[in-house]
């Protein structure tokens, strides 16, 4: 395994991305503490600040904080509804500008990316960082800033990136990497969550210095898999490449506004989310063998699943959802409040490797529904919006259902139709 003798990786993280994009797009928000929320502002007391600006953070507001708590800390915070379509366009514009200076290796999320350094950039990382920041400020906008970390590998560059936020540049040369790491608490190491930290504490490891003093096989045993050993080599500056991952599921979840938190009111939202998940699945040429429906209640939750005969058409998938919805109606208490609803299509099968159940092979009716569904998809693609759907199409308040920006997924334009 190769151990680089110099920096080879850049990791870039946009500062307060959602809030800074809103400030760049809407001048009236600039210089003010901003909190981005999922619903319109008259529902603010029921929701959460999902992202906040540096001005709000300076007053103690944090991402994923209840709006009443955020307003108590920062009475003048300006609450604005999320704009996933705007965030997606900003992401694409920023990647375009960065790729003019250096090829992008991987976009890790909507606001993080990593690059491999060329010889010129290894010699002058500060110059590269200055060029990137200047290009972003001049061609996208000065209110969107980024923090940049340089190190021998991706993991160390990501950790370095966190050291001088916001708008900082941090360079960890290989010979000093372990010394830089020793100043970080375990919770700051990417890949160490709360449960993993407790496991390490139980093994007598309380600091990052103690963690890096272990051996690879010991780390593997602590993690219970090869990821622990990979972590050890990453922290010690070896060139560790990310393992390829395959698609495991398609799904969407949605926090419901107060007026939709009863089962009969939430059904249309669940249908819409499932239809959008199925469209994504078809675009990637997959079929599903199972459907999950999950409902987060104010107290507890409900979960149901139903097997599918390797299908991807809307009629078959929505019929399965209807069955699960009837089951939920029978099992849920009379007094319930559904805070969040979600659907997941899983047990995927690539279209070119599809295998059908001996007793549930495609019949004429199933083939007809597949043709109808593919025709609907073609019409929607042709006109660049939703023009046809199977059954009702009632977006919930706030819009953008199915266009959520998850950590590992950046929506496409089709997700907003």
TrEMBL record:
Enzyme Commission (EC) number: 2.7.7.7
InterPro entries registered for this protein in UniProt: DNA/RNA_pol_sf, DNA_pol_Y-fam_little_finger, DNA_polymerase-Y, Rev_trsase/Diguanyl_cyclase, UmuC
Position of the signal peptide: none
SUPFAM superfamilies recorded: DNA/RNA polymerases
Superkingdom of origin: Bacteria
A Pfam short name: IMS
GO molecular function: damaged DNA binding; DNA-directed DNA polymerase activity
Enzyme class, UniProt record, top EC level: transferase
Domain UmuC residues, every copy: 9-193
Cellular component annotations (GO), alphabetically ordered: cytosol
Record function comment: Poorly processive, error-prone DNA polymerase involved in untargeted mutagenesis. Copies undamaged DNA at stalled replication forks, which arise in vivo from mismatched or misaligned primer ends. These misaligned primers can be extended by PolIV. Exhibits no 3'-5' exonuclease (proofreading) activity. May be involved in translesional synthesis, in conjunction with the beta clamp from PolIII.
Family membership noted in the UniProt record: Belongs to the DNA polymerase type-Y family.
Subunit description: Monomer.
Protein name: DNA-directed DNA polymerase
Organism: Hyphococcus flavus
């Amino acid at each position: 395994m190769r151990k680089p003798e110099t920096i080879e990786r850049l990791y870039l993280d946009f500062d307060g991305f959602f809030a800074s994009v809103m400030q760049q797009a809407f001048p009236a928000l600039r210089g003010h503490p901003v909190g981005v929320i999922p619903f319109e502002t008259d529902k603010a007391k029921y929701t959460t600040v999902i992202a906040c600006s540096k001005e709000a953070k300076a007053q103690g507001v944090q991402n994923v904080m209840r709006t009443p708590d955020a307003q108590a800390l920062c009475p003048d915070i300006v609450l604005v509804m999320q704009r996933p379509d705007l965030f997606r366009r900003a992401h694409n514009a920023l990647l375009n500008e960065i790729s003019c200076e250096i090829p992008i290796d991987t976009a890790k999320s909507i606001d993080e990316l990593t690059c491999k350094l060329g010889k010129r950039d290894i010699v002058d990382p500060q110059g590269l960082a200055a060029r990137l920041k200047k290009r972003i400020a001049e061609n996208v906008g000065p209110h969107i800033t980024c923090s940049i970390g340089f190190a021998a590998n991706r993991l160390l560059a990501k950790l370095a990136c966190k050291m001088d936020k916001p708008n900082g540049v941090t360079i960890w040369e290989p010979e000093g990497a372990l010394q830089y790491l020793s100043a970080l608490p375990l919770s700051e190491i990417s890949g160490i969550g709360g449960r993993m930290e407790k496991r390490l504490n139980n093994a007598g490891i309380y600091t990052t210095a103690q963690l890096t003093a272990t051996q690879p096989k010991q780390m593997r045993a602590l993690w219970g898999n090869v990821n622990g050993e990979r972590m050890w080599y990453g922290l010690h500056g070896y060139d560790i490449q990310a393992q390829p991952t395959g698609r495991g599921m398609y799904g969407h979840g949605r926090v419901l506004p107060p007026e939709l938190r009863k089962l009969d009111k939430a059904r249309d939202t669940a249908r819409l989310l499932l239809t959008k998940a199925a469209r994504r699945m078809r675009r990637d040429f997959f079929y599903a063998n199972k459907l999950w429906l999950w409902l987060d209640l104010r107290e507890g939750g409900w979960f149901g699943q139903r097997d599918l005969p390797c299908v991807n058409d809307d009629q078959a998938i929505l019929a399965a959802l209807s069955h699960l919805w009837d089951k939920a109606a029978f099992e849920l208490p009379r007094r319930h409040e559904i805070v969040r609803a979600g659907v997941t299509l899983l047990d995927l099968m690539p279209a070119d490797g599809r295998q059908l159940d001996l007793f549930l092979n495609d019949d004429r009716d199933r083939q007809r529904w597949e043709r109808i569904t593919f025709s609907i998809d073609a019409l929607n693609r042709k006109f660049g919006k939703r023009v046809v759907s199977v059954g009702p199409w009632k977006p919930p308040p706030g819009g953008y259902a199915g266009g959520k920006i998850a950590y590992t997924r950046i929506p496409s334009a089709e997700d907003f139709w």
